[in-house]
């Protein structure tokens, strides 16, 4: 038997582990052992943050690409009920009936998108991407006191990220269409989330800790304002048909992000990275508005 080299030892280290205490699915009563990702011993190396507030990771020696968001959603492998851990057990009677009624629909729907899947297996990129689509569908059936809208926003955005990675690996399958769909849904849900923060129709205490949008840092309410404007700009062609509707949408997005960019210079609590991202986004929206209107838009000092 050949001696274990350092490289072989690195490859032998597991990427994830299962918690010992099982969770019981509130829909079908199956027991689930949550899978969590190991982060020690060079498995996960933090890289840059993108303009979508997504952290890029470099994998340690002996590992392939690693996507921590793929592990965030707990999924029942039997009925495919999916939710963030804090929400998994708390399902009201009416929501439970609706989710249970759609068990077969969930499996058929996700199979059409990614093929046959088995959540008994270790989480990979496909299972991670699928978990977010399943979570969006399940949150769609939950009551407002569970704050489903912000969670659908975060799940749609993270799902778009993972389907973007899938498209890079399998460009012929059509995952780019799923990615585009999820980005558009994220834009819609983030707009509603911004409204919910203002009108209080869903309790902030139920979503403030998962706003992310990524798993490494919670950018909080400022992040919601920024991501909302970013997604409105990114998806304005899908969100509005007529030119005047696009202009109105982008003017509001520009106004919202200016609250971060304009006020940021006077704030010691707002991260400089977010201020810089907001400044760039403000300028990009301004350029798009000038292209749509054919006239110069006043710059803010």
Kindly list the characteristics that best describe this protein.
301 residues; mainly alpha; 2 domains; 8 strands; disordered N terminus
The backbone outline, from C-alpha atoms, is: globular
Say how many strands there are: 8
What fraction of residues sit in β-strands? 5-15%
- List unreliable stretches of 5+ residues: 1-10
Major β-sheet profile: 2 strands, antiparallel
Cα(first) to Cα(last) distance is: 70 Å
The helix/strand series, from N terminus to C terminus, equals: HEEEEEEEEHHHHHHHHHH
* Structural classification: mainly alpha
Helix content: 40-55%
Number of individual domains: 2
Question: How much is the radius of gyration in Å?
Answer: 21 Å
Mean pLDDT: 90
Number of H/I helices = 11
Question: Order of strands across the widest beta sheet?
Answer: 1-4
């Amino acid at each position: 038997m050949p001696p274990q080299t350092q490289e072989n030892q690195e490859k032998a280290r597991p990427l994830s582990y299962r918690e010992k205490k099982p969770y019981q699915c509130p829909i079908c009563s199956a027991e689930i052992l949550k899978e969590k990702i190991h982060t020690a011993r060079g498995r996960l190396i933090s890289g840059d943050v993108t303009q979508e507030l997504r952290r890029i990771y470099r994998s340690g020696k002996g590992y392939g690409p690693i996507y921590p968001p793929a592990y965030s959603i707990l999924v029942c492998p039997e009925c495919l009920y999916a939710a963030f851990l804090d929400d998994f057990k708390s399902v009201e009677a009416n929501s439970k009936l609706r989710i249970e009624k759609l068990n077969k629909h969930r499996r058929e729907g996700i199979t059409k998108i990614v093929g046959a899947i088995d959540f008994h297996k270790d989480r990979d990129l496909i299972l991670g991407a699928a978990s977010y689509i399943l979570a969006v569908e399940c949150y769609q059936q939950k009551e407002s006191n569970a704050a489903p809208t912000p969670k659908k926003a975060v799940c749609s955005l993270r799902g778009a990220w993972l389907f973007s990675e899938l498209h890079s690996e399998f460009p012929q399958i059509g995952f780019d269409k799923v990615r585009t769909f999820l980005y558009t849904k994220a834009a819609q849900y983030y707009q509603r989330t911004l409204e919910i923060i203002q009108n209080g129709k869903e309790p902030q205490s139920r979503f403030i800790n998962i706003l992310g949008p990524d798993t490494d840092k919670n950018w909080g309410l400022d992040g919601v304002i920024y991501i909302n404007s970013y997604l409105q700009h990114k998806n304005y062609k899908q969100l509005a048909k007529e030119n005047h509707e696009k202009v109105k949408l982008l003017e509001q997005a520009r106004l919202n992000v200016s609250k971060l960019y304009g006020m940021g210079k006077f704030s010691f609590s707002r991260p400089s990275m977010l201020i810089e991202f907001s400044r760039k986004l403000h300028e990009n929206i301004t350029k798009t508005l000038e292209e749509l209107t054919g006239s110069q838009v006043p710059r803010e000092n």
